[in-house]
Amino acid sequence: MNKIKTVIIFSGGMDSTTLLYKLLEEGKEVRAISFNYGQRHVKELEAAERTCKKLKIDHKIVDISFIKELISNSALTGNIAVPHGHYESENMILTVVPNRNMIMASIAIGYAVNLDFDEVALGIHSGDHAIYPDCRPIFIECLTRIAMHANFKQIDVCTPFLYLDKGDIASIGKHLGVDYSLTWTCYEGKKKPCRKCGACREREEAFKKAQLEDPLLQ
Fold first, then answer.
1. Which of 95, 103, 116, 167 has the fewest Cβ atoms within 10 angstroms?
2. The Cα angle at residue 93 between residues 82 and 35, in degrees rounded to 5
3. Is 169 helix (H, G, I), strand (E, B) or coil?
4. What is the pLDDT of residues 154-198, one digit of tens each?
């Protein structure tokens, strides 16, 4: 039986890193693609590079930072301060990057078609649903239809964490032996996680649920 060939959209955060380990455990052939879209810092991209180097995964970082001026109405791409608080807080809408997942998925699908691969994988999970429209099941449903019809080559969309929360993902990572010391989640690009932004808050809750110590806080 031929291996399933997968392009993973790889941020370098704990969700996509856990997904990468999962895809490899399933015996899939994987290539990773990351994006510089003009985000506040490149620490996640550096994390992605470290993990791919460790796992010997072919990894491309695509520079689309020229779009920053077109999607600057976000704390992650513009001059807006990163809000503090939980993801369910109303001010977290400031972290939404306009159409980000659609832009990245479109490029990743094209890459998969070009490679004659079978699917594109994303680490989207249920904790993203509340604040990010392009992480909700309806978006994935529509994206899957687009990926099946946009080219002569049909591409599947793989989102195994879609109905799991970040704690569930951390538990999967614990089983898989994911090296979370190589990941980065915080919206700030400082030496240590700020522990105040929504991303940090959710990560801490996830590690607590999985009964794991976060190596970035040691």
1. 116
2. 70
3. helix
4. 999 999 999 999 999 999 999 999 999 999 999 888 899 999 988
